[in-house]
Amino acid sequence: MALAASRGAGAGLCPMPVLQLFLLFLPALAAGPAGMLQPRDSPSRERRELGGLWSFRADLSPGRDAGFAQRWYRRPLRQTGPVIDMPVPASFNDITQDPSLENYIGWVWYEKEVLLPLRWLQGDPAPRVVLRFGSAHYYSIVWVNGVQVVEHEGGHLPFEADISSVVQGSPGTLCRITVALNNTLTPHTLPPGSIQYMADKSRYPRNYFVQDTKFDFFNYAGIHRPVVLYTTPAAYIDDITVTTTSSNSVAMVQYQVSVVGSTDYSLSLSLCDQEGKVVATADGPVGELKVLNPNLWWPYLMHENPGYLYSLEVKMQAQVGEVLLEDVYTLPLGIRTVHVTGTQFLINGRPFYFHGVNKHEDADIRGKGLDWPLIVKDFNLLRWLGANSFRTSHYPYAEEIMDLCDAYGIVVIDESPGVGIKLPESFGNKSLQHHLAVMEELIRRDKNRPSVVMWSVANEPASELPPAAHYFKTLIAHTKALDPSRPVTFVTDANYALDHGAPYVDVICVNSYFSWYHDPGHLEVIPLQLTAQFDNWYKTYQKPIIQSEYGADSVPGLHSDPPMMFTEEYQQAMLREYHSVLDKKRKEYVIGELIWNFADFMTGQGTTRVLGNKKGIFTRQRQPKAAAFVLRDRYWKIANESSCLPPVITSHSFYL
Length: 656
Known about the structure:
Blueprint: E1 6-11, H1 15-23, E2 47-49, E3 52-58, H2 66-69, E4 84-88, H3 99-102, E5 107-115, E6 128-133, E7 136-137, E8 139-144, E9 147-153, E10 159-162, H4 164-168, E11 174-182, E12 194-197, E13 208-213, E14 222-223, E15 227-232, E16 236-247, E17 250-260, E18 265-272, E19 278-283, E20 286-292, E21 310-320, E22 323-333, E23 338-340, E24 345-347, E25 350-351, E26 354-358, H5 372-385, E27 389-391, H6 399-408, E28 411-415, H7 429-446, E29 452-459, H8 467-482, E30 488-492, E31 508-511, H9 526-541, E32 545-549, H10 568-585, E33 590-595, H11 626-642
Parallel strand pairs: 26-27, 26-33, 27-28, 28-29, 29-30, 30-31, 31-32, 32-33
Antiparallel strand pairs: 1-13, 2-15, 3-4, 3-5, 5-11, 6-10, 6-15, 7-14, 8-9, 8-11, 12-13, 16-17, 17-20, 18-19, 18-21, 21-22, 23-24, 24-25
Helix pairs in contact: 7-8, 9-10, 10-11
């Protein structure tokens, strides 16, 4: 997206120095073990979601530091002062009628008291009890019964803590979970931001500051994804890594399993198809499974049975003292290959064309909070639209969303929260080290997903700056070392001749808004400018290209003929101008197009935004604008041209 400064104002001192101050004496704790397997029930594991109402309190003290100074985590939060009910998962910004909370910057506090089953606290050895957060934005510190158990930086990836020693050493079964959460962004966070002090006392209150960002979506904050308590045996399966290859009628599944808690263990693996039939078995922590006549994982509209998933059941038996423990974990597994040539993107050896969307985790009231009805509605709209893919703009999406991508065959470009990297200081070593760590977390979470076919390390960075060369060379090399099986890209809006990061990507992803941010209102310039864009990028780098963003704002119900900006007709006309060029270039080296955006979304307030960004082809409430029908007709036409399915499929065949 084009950039817009987002400002959240609050009275008081900047909270980030408070954050840095307290990190000086808070113990440094890791955000979790080497593995980050998604919690699943099994014969040896239990899980319990902690969604619902939590106690909530914003720290309104001048320095935002009263919660630490008074140690709110040492006693029930209601005893520290006034609390309100806050739903989890949800952003806190839009829940109340308090405008100061809408734009609050600093520390907020959450608390939940739960009773644990006695079976979780007893035994020899007792089970391992783990507290896991799907995500919390942005910086989190977590206590259980007054004991700090974990801290984590980053707002879009899971973190967890083994709390066994805390809860099993406490009297009774009460587990009080306290979370301090800070949404301040600095030049070294992902995404970056900065605090601006307004020192002119004739214009601003004392100690007034604003949070500035260089990205165009609202900086929602809160516990955005499910909080889960789950158990494993004392010795357990910690991580599983799979990669797949296939040729002719045989597929190979290479695997690696790590076990924690015992060195005296055995592993057995069974791969079952969707009918429950065992199709391959293996033993040991490293090896491969041979699958004859495999059902490959195909994208939606590329095969009559898209999103085919096997079940890989891993069983561990481990000796711990005199006790033999067993752990079972089942991993959904899709068999597919990805390959990039100079002009094509191949899935299972066949050319794949991305006809999809960019999205946001964004909705009325709950902000970025996970919402199952909304998720299911969005996937039904995607399939109605004929979209086969999306990019997780501009941060990793919830695991629950990714699960449905795997199951439905929706192809994903999995993007890190590296959006708004514009300042020179954001290309320094401190920022780079954090970005490397974020990519490790992202790949650790999503490495086994067949829907994820490419990593995107950033969106619209200032890649024309000289430090960007070392930054992206290092970042992309690190990403490829972590996962050699997938191509890597970042999304650029820089000049093709000045982009220092483009030499290192496998696929060029370029954003452009001709006749909108450039030559606004002049649709006639699109054919010339878009053609030149594609030709210049391909001539320079000889790599396939995705039009990763394009679009125009439209206010629902606003009409004009001839088309004028912000009308539904103008949005339609812009799309058609882009499509005429894309139809020519997709016969050469363009391998995809992703509309900006799937749905309208909230942004910071500004003179160019009226209740958010209106570039959606659907409204924020998921009602179609006229452009949705233009895109639907196009996507179904492309699908019929490239699909191996019978041509009787029409845009009216899939009402889901």
